[in-house]
């Protein structure tokens, strides 16, 4: 009539289905459905709104833990790298100056699920932009390369000065 398995056998199965994987599946499936249904621009806008709200919440967490957000570019770069590490990314600081933070990444928090789902990059854009603009009053974020678009890694530039010298998404305190 069928295969009989005990609860213990089923619980012992090695299936990647824990809480992090489940929520990553939800996010990437939702992004994919939005991209396929309403288009990349509109899906990116929706994901960006979610990212802005998450960014505000994450910004508050770091501000509370640090008794305020630092304005120093090096400390902000450390925060951005740290938050991505905490959620499963591998962002490292490429360069830091008074005008710009550049981070590179070799592992997306969404893992391979991000492939072909560039709207999810708006999560990084908005979270980074919100944190830096909360600390300094302004940020402009541009993702030069993304795993989601087929690059082997991500490269994210966060401009710290409103100089109209580049592309990207702007954020204000």
Main attributes of the structure:
single chain; 173 residues; alpha+beta; 5-stranded antiparallel β-sheet; 17% strand
Outline the fold blueprint:
Layout: H1 7-11, H2 19-38, H3 40-66, H4 73-86, E1 91-96, E2 100-105, H5 121-136, E3 138-145, E4 154-159, E5 169-172
Antiparallel strand pairs: 1-2, 2-4, 3-4, 3-5
Helix pairs in contact: 2-3, 3-5
- SS-derived structural category: alpha+beta
Number of helices: 5
Number of strands: 5
Mean pLDDT: 91
Q: Name the poorly predicted regions.
A: none
For the largest beta sheet, what order do the strands appear in spatially? 1-2-4-3-5
Notes on the protein architecture:
With 173 residues, this protein is α+β, with helices and mostly antiparallel strands. Helices cover 47% and strands 17% of the residues. The chain has five helices and five strands, in the order ααααββαβββ. It has a five-stranded antiparallel sheet, with helices on one face. Strand 1 and strand 2 form a beta hairpin. Helix 2 packs antiparallel against helix 3 and helix 3 packs across helix 5. The longest helix has 27 residues. The radius of gyration is 18 Å and the shape is globular.
Short summary:
Helix content is 47%, strand content 17%.
